[in-house]
Amino acid sequence: MICLYCHSPLSQHVDIFSLFQKSSIICHTCEKKLSPLSDSPTCKRCANKTEEAVDLCESCLFLSQSFKHLPNQIITVFDYNKEVQQLFHRYKFVNDAAMSEVIAHFINVDFKKYDLVIPIPISNKRLEERTYNQVSLVLDQLNVNYSDILKTNKVKRQSELTKAERLREKQIFFMHEGDKERVYGANILLVDDIYTTGITVHQAIQELYAHNCKNIDLLTFSRS
């Protein structure tokens, strides 16, 4: 077997105990490079790096003033270090779909406690270009039952917009009429890949709360 990330051979110790353990998909070196959140000071809410630990960073304060509804908690998997940036570049822009399994390897979330797990959608045009939704593919690797009830017609990448441009945009998410009743009273986990300004996911949160969900937690693979 080879490491899915660096393609070097995997050295595995074989004994009676290893027969009952899940095989590793990445080597120890890559495991260390891609290891989840560091001990650096961060915002306790969104994992944004700060000079000292704070309950709410400037970004979270801004979002709390700009949006009526906020996620109950934000779960972040990776630090956005250089290796993680390379991981997501390969995954999103080089179409290296195998990186979905690498990302899934680091996620430890109790998905069963949620009524609905909802990935942030991408437009049909973007889906045709990439051939997969980068969030849904990771959830597939985890065998998570998720609901594609959020839709978007947005074509331009959010990463191409400034913070001000994102705020000026009208609601970019919607749901079909038949799906709205599924949200009512639901405990929801919203899943996104990279949390940057937070504006996109908070627009999605407003749409879900507009149809009277009970609670929304946010899982994001990394905080840039």
TrEMBL record:
Matching Gene3D superfamilies: 3.40.50.2020
Name of the protein this chain belongs to: Competence protein ComFC
Pfam families: Pribosyltran
UniProt xrefs under CDD domains: PRTases_typeI
InterPro entries reported for this sequence: ComF/GntX_DNA_util-trans (IPR051910), PRTase-like (IPR029057), PRTase_dom (IPR000836)
Organism field: Aliicoccus persicus
Ranges of residues in domain Phosphoribosyltransferase: 138-220
Family to which the UniProt record says this protein belongs: Belongs to the ComF/GntX family.
